[in-house]
Amino acid sequence: MPTILAVPKTDQNRALGLSTFAFTICFAVWTIFAIIGIQIKAELGLNDTQFGLLVGTPILTGSLIRVFLGVWTDQRGGRIVFPATMLASAASTFLLSYAHTYPMILAAALGVGLAGGGFAVGIAYVSKWYPQEKQGTALGFFGMGNVGAAVTKFAAPFVMVALGWTAVAQIWATALAVVAVLFFLFGKDDPDFASRKISGARPKSLREQLEPLKFQQVWRFSLYYFFVFGAFVALALWLPKYLMGVYGVDVKTAGLFAATFSLSASLFRVYGGILSDRYGARKIMYVTFGVSLVCLFMLSYPATDYVIHGIKGDIRFSTSMSLLPFVLTMFLLGFVMSLGKAAVYKHIPVYYPDHVGAVGGMVGMVGGLGGFILPIIFGAVSDLTGVWTSCFMVLFALVVVALGWMHLAVRQMEQKASGLDARSLPQFPEMADLHDTKLHGAGVAKVIAEWRPEEREFWENIGEPIARRNLYISIPALLLAFSVWMVWSMVVAKLPLIGFNYTTDQLFWLAALPGLSGATLRIFYSFMVPIFGGRLWTTLSTFSLLIPAFGIGYAVQNPETPYFIFLVLALLCGLGGGNFASSMSNISFFFPKARKGNAMALNAGLGNLGVSVMQFLVPIVITASVFGTMGGLPAATGEGGQLWLQNAGFIWVPFIIAAGVLAWFGMNDIADVKASFAEQSVIFQRKHNWLMCWLYTGTFGSFIGFSAGLPLLAKSQFPDVNVLKYVFLGPLVGAVSRAATGWVSDKWGGARVTLWVFLGMMLGVIGVMHFLGQKDFFGFLGMFVFMFFVTGVGNASTFQMIPVIMRQEVPRLMPELNAAETTRQAEKESAAIVGFTSAIAAYGAFFIPKSFGSAIAVTGTPMAALWGFLIFYASCAALTWFVYTRKGGLLHAIERGNSPVPALAVAQ
Fold this sequence. Notes:
Elements: H1 9-30, H2 33-44, H3 48-64, H4 66-76, H5 78-96, H6 102-112, H7 118-127, H8 132-143, H9 148-163, H10 165-186, H11 191-199, H12 206-210, H13 216-247, H14 251-267, H15 269-279, H16 281-300, E1 304-310, E2 313-319, H17 323-351, H18 356-385, H19 390-416, E3 447-448, H20 456-494, H21 504-525, H22 528-532, H23 534-543, H24 546-555, H25 563-572, H26 574-588, H27 593-621, E4 635-636, E5 642-643, H28 647-650, H29 653-666, E6 669-670, H30 677-680, H31 687-717, H32 729-740, H33 742-748, H34 750-774, H35 777-813, H36 819-841, H37 844-859, H38 863-885, H39 892-895
Parallel strand pairs: 3-6
Antiparallel strand pairs: 1-2, 4-5
């Protein structure tokens, strides 16, 4: 392998960043026919086979050229080859706009496809900047440029509808040419090429470069990539047409849902590189093929009507996959494909370090050919069978072959190595004589090997700046998550004004569903940080917010959007709700015992502030054309005004992108914070986990439930008041009180404060009921603001209780552990309970709005729901007193200073 000399990290980051950005634009151009091809098909009257040939032609060029581009990059350097490739493609793409016959468009498409060859250039160029143990991660990050397909699907439909398909070609071509110039100006020669220029050494000849292609292994890798990449490209091109044909959606909606597949099949590629570096590429390929097999079997089954001739007559039923399960299944398929793409290219620099360009180009070529051949096969099979799902049947057969060949090859390798101790084998058994096992499992960048916040010297000199940086990045990411989670409550309140005629109960369902999905996701998110690391999980979970943000922006612009689509978007907003559990768990590990309370209060309180920020900002941005023509046209209201309701989603997009990038480059992972789900699942055996779930539902569940339900409740009870001007005050007060009152629990004890909190909540509910009866809006609002304040205090006090409880319980429940093990166990259990209780409590965001809606639907008023809340708060107060604060309760002696708290460094 070429020796990678000491390269400045800034140069590595520059090369990786420029290459990834350039490849993103290349991929956006390469898949341009997925959108503009639909209009071209309609204008020229093409059949499915002709359409398949049209969208596949650029893929053919970009695939066939990859071998040669990879070799040329090894010989002449990526700084020259990459811009030259982009400029050639940009010229062809621009000329495409002047072609108006099918043969002319096909000819131009050949040149457009040169953009796809940029992948081979980037692989050869980027791999030379990194040592072997980090190439999986680096190449995975570069491969994330596949997200360019999603860029085209998000943006191209709007441009095409507004300006025509020729404008899309011209704009995309201009962007590609600009990026080519920027790459040349700011890029540098890779270390291998630079050292060769200095020494005057000749590059390997074409024959030498292509020598490894005689090995069967290269072609096996190529088959893997034919599926994970070729099928991805083929589906990215085919899905808009499939969605329009099967589910009857318009081109913009089809582009949106197809883009969710492209996003999952692209953004997670960097994660696949990290996993391949850590666990070995072979394991990741097994996961990829195994999950793909299940997904494709489900997708292959056509919609079918059954008639069973029963004893008492015919029994009829049907099976079909509706739109939401289809989108979710495609998202999962894209996710495992993204892991597989990174895993395949993890193999290449390890096995063929001196021939990355040639081997990477060949594998990329075969994979790219899949993007050309498969759409044609999809069209031909569709024409032949007349079955929409036939495209997935083809892919199911393909993955069966790939998985079978891989498993047979692995078995042969294991048999050859049977004489060795299995535990001594490296991740790649066939390379046992070439690779040292020490390379496998190596840590990734940004991982802190030792973290000792309880040691004063370590904390003051090293720990505190790192912890504060992670906290300051976590807060805005969590604020955005809460904003996206609750934005639906504001959108729902405005839908009737722009022509969406839904009943009150339907509107309350839409307001409640983000709470349901967000709470459910929290259950899983609460265990993710110890498994995957806080940095990676924060980055991915933040970027996932783009899906509902874009979805809202597109859906509300068309009054014909089905109610079902709004149900799906409401559930997707729950992606923001899940982030709280992982964010709190992550931050808890960074701070020492004495600082945890304040850090957690800041993270949670200022993160909760996202609800108030959203409720303040959205009413403003929907009244103006914030994004100009790119943001779409306004909708006319029944009162004669105009609303840009799409801005309620679009306004978060730039901030989400910035927060995700900041999390990836600015946060850290702590190596000691690693635990499997099985290790953390011990909390399900702890009774206090379930008791704290009940109490935290009373505090945070009320905060988030009232945040979701108050706008619509106030609007329904006081229709003559512009309630959206005032409702942001409640979440604002609740968030600030949580951030500012953590010291109260530290001083007086969390359980004692929690008891008074629930008594205050009972008084607040009684006050709301009184002012509702009096039809006094400001009295009604004042009591809700009071309850929001009390919930903020309770959110901090209940979380303060959890670590104190576990410091008591772990030594009693696990006496066999030594002091250090007890500390670690208490940390893990406290962090897991914090996440899990937040997950259960988040169901308040569903049950509270739904309770209001159901009570109004049945009785005409929300009084029945308020009586239920009053009884619930009474039960919380009784539980707190009986278990924790009464004389003889678990925390009675500790909170009154009669018993010391065990000195364990536990998470809060």
